[in-house]
Amino acid sequence: xxxxxEFERPIAELESKINELRHLTSGQDVxxxxxxxxxxxxxxxxxxxxxxxxxxxxxxxxxxxxxxxxFSDLVSRLVEDFTPLAGDRSFGEDRAIMxxxxxxxxxxxxxxxxxxxxxxxxxxxxNFGMPKPEGYRKARRFMELADHFNxxxxxxxxxxxxxPGLDAEERGQAEAIARCLETSxxxxxPYVSVIVGEGGSGGAIAIATSNHVHMxxxxxxxxxxxxGCASILWRSAAKAQEAAVAQKLTAQDxxxxxxxxxxxxxxxxxxxxxxxxxxxxxxxxxxxSLGELSRLDGPSLQKHRREKFLSMGRxxxxx
Length: 319
Known about the structure:
The protein is α/β, with parallel strands linked by helices. The protein contains 14 helices and 8 strands. Strands 1, 2, 3, 4, 5, 6, 7 and 8 form an 8-stranded mixed beta sheet that branches.
């Protein structure tokens, strides 16, 4: 049974009716094809209307949709010969961050990203996509390997944030994220990131400090979750919807602020409705980005990345 968000309920009811009619056509000799087509057209119109005017809070909900494509879903469609690597060579394995060598359009690359999991068991195994210090040290290892072997680096970002537990703080969470940022800015290979779901705080930017940063249309990218922001500003997570508006966390806002480089359109009704098409759209943007960046030499790539992030905030509107 598919999961539907609150604002999708009218659409869900229509789709349920369409499915019932389809079962009738397969079980009885009744010509109701035209009725199915009429309802299908109505459902698509409702989808277009709903997703064409999503509020920031609704975009947060879409970005968190449990059926949204995860790292493993996208990797299986974007690259070939994926060879996962494990461990940080210091403490242990953190499955919230996954990555390894792969072949993208015939070229060897390093690809990494957050993995949230698909069901209760896998979500627990991947810690809901919230890395601990060993996860970021593993990510740094991926970066250094990509630089050593002169391989383009791709990262797929989808995390509510770094794991906030006491054990993570005891093992140096802040230092691990800072080291990731330091390593990212020193790389001399093409580096492209895509925010595919949630881009939460340092948990996201640790592996998104790249030459080109792209976002799926209904993804979000912010310094803190709306709930966390509301708890700080209003002492109540119930104000999350107001916080989401104030945070300017949508792809459309961030493109205007020049925080990201482009918006990748999603299939009608969101990426969770069509994984193959979502992957195809990401593939197109990745190919273009890597093609542009491959024309630059190592020092130019490094300079481009540093200047990109140093320039952020200098020209933002004050209102």
